[in-house]
Amino acid sequence: MKIRAKYTKLGYLKYLSHLDLVRLFNRSFIRADIPVRYSEGFNPHPKLSLGNPLPLGIESVCEYFDVELTENIELNEFNNRLNEVLPKWIKIIESKEIDELTPSISSTMCITEYEISADLTNPEEEIDYSCEINRLLDFSNIDIEKKKKKGKNKVTIKVNIRPFILKLSINGVYDGSIKFKSIVLTGEKGNVKPSELLEVINKNTKIKLDLDSMNARKIASYTNEFEE
What we know:
This protein is an alpha+beta fold.
């Protein structure tokens, strides 16, 4: 039996690394007495696969993992057993059975919707915020610097992230802070982090933000078939 589960990653656990998250689930499967299938060989490990890593410091209400079991289990029982042993900020929302031919999470769910907020450093200025964002989206090139591994070293390269930004809009301005909603690529075809979006807004528009005040939450994942 193979299960795909949707779960949250909230609160202080937004700082939990991808590798530590894998370890947390592996320990939780043991504590919850979930009959997980292990790989063969000298170093067997649980057949668990998570989606693309979430940027550190970002909350999410829509993370996913796939896990293979050695025997069938009721989905509600699977959810309840895990939720009894998982920390309160990580909870299984729902799960479903999938077959061996189902494409992996990382190969299909490569479009992400974020809610992002930050404090304004110039809240007293009269600015048409939506107009500024629309003007930014009219750019054909929005370059940022990214670190890329080259051999054993890391090099800095310029990347045009404009093709990776599918949607970006203002979601509210209040009490000296501003909220954005964005839909971006987050897979092998391209990857844009919330912090990078705020950096390009700061650099290319009249909207000036305190980048250290950023809060972001992943609220949806979409497949390759997503349409604007």
